[in-house]
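Components:
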Amino acid sequence: MSPAAATGAGGNVALLRATSLSGGYGEADVVREVDLVVSAGECVALLGPNGAGKSTLLRLLAGILPASGGGVELRGRPLAQWRRREIARVVGLVPQHVNFAFPVTVAEVVEQGRAPHLGAWRPAAPRDHAAVAEALRRVGLAGREASGVQRLSGGERQLVLLARALASQPELLLLDEPIAALDIRHQLEFAEILGELVRGGVGAVLVAHDWNFALRLAHRLVVLHHGRVHATGAPPDVLRPELFRAVFGVEVDTLPRGAGPPLFAPRRVAPEEAGRDGKG
Amino acid sequence: MRRAADAGLVVVLLSAVAASLLFAGPAASPGEALAALAGGGPPEVRTIVFDLRLPRLALALVVGASLALAGAALQALLSNPLADPFLLGISGGGAAAATAAYVVLPAAALGLVPAAAMAGAALATGLVWWLARGPLGPSGTRMILAGVAVNAAASAAILTMLALAPSPRLPGVIAVTMGSLASANPGQVAWLTPYILVPGFVLLLHGRDLGLLATGEESAAALGVEVATVRRRVFLAAAALCGGAVAFAGVIGFVGLVTPHVCRLLWGQSTRRLLPRAALAGAALTALGDLVARRALAPAELPVGVVTALLGVPFFVALLRRAP
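Structure:
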């Protein structure tokens, strides 16, 4: 029943498939031999400690960072054969950080999402305006077009970045810690919007530090540790007290819930022998 | 709003052109100049209008457009509102080389000064690019730091040469360091105008990419920008525009910094919309600045950079106070 099983059967072409993917920024690879498959309508959450290689993996999947080994296929075609603009039409990356050096408006930012479809010269056409309006509506920012982005709250800014990615009408969303700066209400709203998109057929890879948030959305978890896949599978199979000890070096309390998987609350840093390295 | 601003820009530009040809000095009255433009009038007036005023106006337009276009592009490329064409050390290199040429060349060879300035600008461009390269290619911050270093070295060299320059050559050195359009001649304009077309076209071609780059590298790459390629092209194109401007007009400040901001306030932040308008506005500002520089304290002539600052900054401040 789970989407993970469907991709395992191999009947349909995966939206994105990474095979033994490695890459980094210099001599040492940050991501090592990662295998990952994402299908349409599937949400995969990437978990792992700081420095585990989650953001780097997203950059490799988006083709922003060249792979040093292995490869990525997008819609069955090697990523290296795609032009950057073609990738941007299919893959929407929501970066962790966007620099607003100039006082841009919400509309100006979301319109940037149409750039992959427009090229150098073509001005925006009615269908581009429609895509922008639809993206703003989806994230609940319709009517805020003229607001200055620099004056928005962190939560609203994150929604603007999501809308910018949606304006390019991607088939796959790559989200780098989208809720890290959001309060709990905005987290829930963000999860709702994302869940709706995934149910509508968009594939998603979500970097998350909050496993309870990941549990809410993800069909499958991939836990990275030292750049390698430490565990992968359906959330209840992966999230166990042993995992928190081995990967994060913390002990957790398991809080059963009436329905659905249990919640985990961190209790204390695990004693040395089970501990993590000093990477933080 | 945008339409009105577009119309206003055209009116200002045409007024600057007309005023520069008609009201540039006592040697030819507006009526005489008009008659000369229509093809009549005495030959000496036609010489004044066609061989002195027209080349100087054309040089002002070309230099102003180059500086404003380069400034607007660099502000986006470096995600830095304080960037201007002179931040990256290009003008410093050009001015130092031009100063050296004024100091050492024999009088008969002073025609080589612009060539020296171009060579100095090219050398500084290469130096900044080389200094700024990091493990992932040159980053915006490293480019700014490298430019500041090269500019500082160039300033030291210029000041040293100023101290050592033989006094007959000082006016030339001052024209380079403070900016002047006084040496304009038809040959320069005929050379410079086609020269700026290619880099100007490159910057306009990458207008949309530059708007995305202003939000950061990862963000731009995610929306389809080939970051390394665009950065290299835009940097070289801006350097070429800046080197050309410095070669024939010296260092004219504020046009490249302030014009793009004035245009942003009038037309919004879209870099694609901004670039062509910044070019036209820079042309108008420099032409008007040069006219005022010649007329304000006539017969003395002010450095044109001082006037562009005096004209541009109050307008900019007024708009800034009004901005939402």
